[in-house]
Each structure stands twice: as C-alpha cells, then as structure tokens.
Amino acid sequence: MQNTILEMKNIVKEFNRNKVLKGVSLQVDKGEIVSLVGENGAGKSTLMNILFGMAGIVNTGGYEGQIIWEGQPVQMVSPGQAMNLGIGMVHQEFMLLPSYTVTENVKLNRENTKHNVVSRLVGSSMSTLDRRHMKSDTKEALDKIHLKVDPSTVVGSMSVGYKQFVEIAREIDKKNIKLIVFDEPTAVLTDMESTWLLDTIREISAAGVAVIFISHKLDEVMEISDKIVVLRDGELVDTIGKGEVDVVGLAKLMVGRNVDFSAIAGRPPEEMGKNGPIMQIKGLGVKMPGENVKGVDIDIHKGEILGFCGLAGQGKLAIANGIAGLYPSTGEVIYKGKKLPFGRPLEILMPIVGCVEVFGFEVIIIDRSGIGLLMDESIRMNICLLAMQIKNRFFKSYGFFRQLDRRSMKRTADDMVRELGIKCVSSEQHPSDLSGGNQQKVCIAKAVVFEPDMLFVSEPTRGIDIGAKKVILDYLLTLNREKGITIVITSSELVELRSLCDRIAVVYDGRVKSVLKPTDSDETFGLLMSGLDAVEVQ
After folding, report:
1. Which of 53, 123, 268, 325 is such that its CA lies 20 to 30 A from the CA of 111?
2. Does residue 536 lie within any of the structural domains?
C-alpha cells in the first residue's frame, strides 16, 4: 500500500441521466506507467477530468466513489487542488498561449518574484518578476526532457512537436509533481518525435513520477506500459499486466469484437480509368509552412479512392490544402473539364466554400476543433449548415418568405447520428461535448449531407480509437461503392490507406514518387517514402 500513490474506487458519473462511468476502479503506483485505453466515449477523459477536478465535473453534480491520494481520501473539487497535490496533465489540445515565450508559458501562474524598494515598504504585492530565475528554472526543465530551445522563443513560432514538449516542461517544472496524465500526447507528432516523447516518459517514470498514458496507438501502449487498464462503454473491462496480451487481443478487449484492417485488392486502374479523370492535377506547387509541394502531376479517376501517403513534412498534407486555396498555389487543377481558380477567399468556418459553390466538392479539414466544426452550435446545425448555405436545403418557401425546415434538419441529423454511431444524448448537443472520434464523425456527416461528387479527407482518424477508425473507414468505403463518390484521402497511417484505397500515391520531397497498389510490399512503400528508388507499380 505504501508504494501506491493513487486509487480510484468504484467511480460513477452521470450526465443528463446518461451514466458514462459505471463503477470504474484504478490503481497507480509510484513511478509506474499505467495506460488507459478504450474507444472514444468509453469514459477515459471523464475519469481523468474527475481526477483533475475539472469544472465540467464539479458543476454537473460531481461524482460517486472514492479517490485515495497517498493513502488519504480526497474529494477533487478543482484543478488547483489537483496541482497542489502533485497531479499534472499534458492535454491533447494544447493549453499554451502562442504569443508568450516558452518561459512565460512554463511559469504561468507560478512566476518567480523578487523584492524591490517599493515592495519592501508596502508588501510583496508590489514585487517584480524575477525573469532570470524564471528563465533558469525553465532551462532546467527543458534540459530534463532534452529539448534544445531558447526559453525566450515565442511559442507560436514553434513546431507542433516542440509545443508538445513545452507542455511537458511546464509539468516537470512543478517541484512537487508526483503523477502526470498524458492525454493522446503523440497524436500530432512525427514518428521521430513520438519515439523521443516515449523515451522522455520512461525517464520521468524512472525518476519516481507516476504516469497515466492515454493513447489510441496500441503499439505505443504495448511498448511503454507497466499495466494497461481497458474501459468499454464506461465499464472496467480488464487490467492487464505487461506482456499478458498482444495488440490484436488488446483491440478486441477495447471494442468487444475483432477489428480487421487488412489490405484490399484495389480495383484495376483500367477499370477506374474507363470513365476518364474527374480531376487532373498538373504541376501543382503549394507553399505551406512545414510542407512544400514542388510539382505534383496526377490524374484522379472518377469513382476511385486515391490515397496520399508519405513521411511528415514531405508534402502530402499540402496537396489538398493547396487545391482548397488554403495556401498559395501554382500549376493547374482541372475538375470536370474546368480549370479550378486558385486563391478564392475562404469563408471562416466553411472550408473552400467558393470551390464548393462552383465545383461541388467538399474537404474535411484536419482541424476538427478549428474550422472543421462550429463548437457553439448544435450537432444538428453542424451537420446541415453547409447544405443549407450552399444548396439551399432545409428551407420551406411561403411566397417571398423562407423558413427553416427544422423537422427535416432533425430527421437528417438523427439519421446521420444513427448511421455513423455518433455517441451523444441527442443531435441538439454541441460538438464540444463529444469525444474526438465523435467530432470527426460529425465532420464526415456534414460532408455527406452536402452530397458531394468528390470528397477530400485529410487525416480522418487522427487521435481516435481503433473501433471508431473502423467505423469511419467502412463508411467512407460505403460512400464510394454505393454512392459513387470519388474520395481522396491523406493519412499518416499506411495501414488504413491499404484497407481502403484503390491506389496509393507516395509523396516525397514535394512530388509524387510513385503510385502503388494497396497490396504492394511494405519494403516497396518504405523505400519510396524514404526517397529511395523501388520498382514503380502503376
């Protein structure tokens, strides 16, 4: 017992009479790495929000059950209390101020001060910031995680990976830190950065700090965990020791069924090309921060699923973003025989609305919490809005007057919630109340209701669980096979591209290195993604 730092016993939580945690128990020892896994909506975030005393828990009736910290019962009522106890959290969505320096972010609300002439006379409230001490502390925290960056650097100018490590440095700087929760810390990192972060977590653990690690990347979970806690639909399924299960077995425990991501055969190019190209990309150049496209040439066949893969920074994400007009672009894109005009202004919160209006295709943007969704509107409105504004759907006309057809909106949104398995109380909820995977499903529902001829999808399964991945990928396949929608999907996950695509274009150094079949060997994909030559298969 003396080695145990945290016990959560029979934790129960309800939202609007919906029981999201049903008697979950968890134990963490000092210096132990405990992974918490489960599908989106399984209750992982709710359990951690309870531990951290978040307002969303406290203001909705609190929780049932018992939390024991270092052998003493505690009632978690605020993040401040959690931090005072020595509990830190590295959030999935960055909690940084982009206009502040690394030092200012690390020391925020914990600033070092020093006395001056005035403060000695009237009190410490007039003390000034001890910037030298703050910078020194920050440098020490950065050194512990091997991050070579000037503490005076403005956070907004840093890469996504470096921002994640600044989040960790902020927790490491807390002198009394005893447990850190990592919530999907590698979701936006490159493979190299992910390896670096996992090594850092091991060092934190070796120093005696306990870790709760939440991730949908099961290979990482298997690699780093001392113990794995599996949740499903708000219930504790199992607690597994190191080496007691393989990845396949773990996935089955999470979702309650077998999950198959095996490669499909892919339809022959001659079959896909018989109706001619729906889009021709000629000499496409895109200037996007961190990714440049230097001359992409490729025809997209009508009715196919084409994938773009490649290592981080090689240009795969910039292709769709350039076509959408998000960044300066050159070259030609011909859609249904018409040249696509670059540089059309974007309407905020409506991705490529100008292109949608003229050419009839929709792009699901990678940032679902930014321009992808309207977080302050209902799920129903998010699903229907694009079709309302562009195609004038969901209106009833009375002479010169129009009125929203709310019944039709509800019916359509409820159908999409049911088809995609969006876990919500009703379509009147806001997307901000949903897990990341369910938010992504709302993005897809929005595009489907718009009824596009062509769908560009960027990183559709980033940060979501294996079960939700399967649902989303199967639904995209259904849209293609049953409704004839041409789909272009960009993903960092080669296994999901191989389970879905007819062809996969490998992008390296801003160009299409080759176009492969989904059944081509791992070696061929690996060589091409590294910039080396391999047998090209068209």
Report:
1. 53
2. no
Pair 246, 341 in one domain: no
Predicted confidence (pLDDT) at residue 352 exceeds the cutoff of 60: no
DSSP characters over 9-32: EEEEEEETTEEEEEEEEEEEETT-
Q: Which residue has the tokens 């929005």?
A: 446
Q: Which two tokens stand for residue 322?
A: 């350039």
Q: Looking at the structure, tell me whether residues 84 and 204 fall in a common domain.
A: yes
Question: What is the number of structural domains in the chain?
Answer: 2
Sheet hosting strand 329-335, strand order edge to edge: 291-301, 277-288, 329-335, 338-339
251 with 280, same domain: the answer is no
- Which token pair is 307? 């994938």
Counting DSSP H helices and E strands in the chain, the numbers are 19, 24
Q: What is d(CA 446, CA 438) in angstroms, rounded to the nearest whole number?
A: 12
- CA dist., res. 428 & res. 512, Å (int): 43
The domain spanning residue 303 has which CATH number?
A: 3.40.50.300
Predicted pLDDT of residue 50:
94
Is residue 391 included in any domain, yes or no? yes
The answer to whether 454 and 58 are in contact (CB under 8 A) is: no
Same structural domain, 235 and 273: no
Per-residue buried b or exposed e for 254-279, using 16+ beta carbons within 10 Å of the residue's own CB:
bbeeeeeeebeebbebeebeeeebbb
70 and 170 share one domain: yes
Residue with token string 């959560």: 8
Dihedral angle over CA of 101, 103, 107, 109, nearest 10: -30
- Residue 140 domain-assigned (yes or no): yes
Whether residues 22 and 143 share a domain: the answer is yes
Domain ranges, residue 52:
4-255
Q: By mean pLDDT, which of 12-16, 20-24, 73-77, 520-524 is the weakest?
A: 520-524
By the 10 Å C-beta count (0-12 exposed, 13-18 middle, 19+ buried), 390 is classed as middle
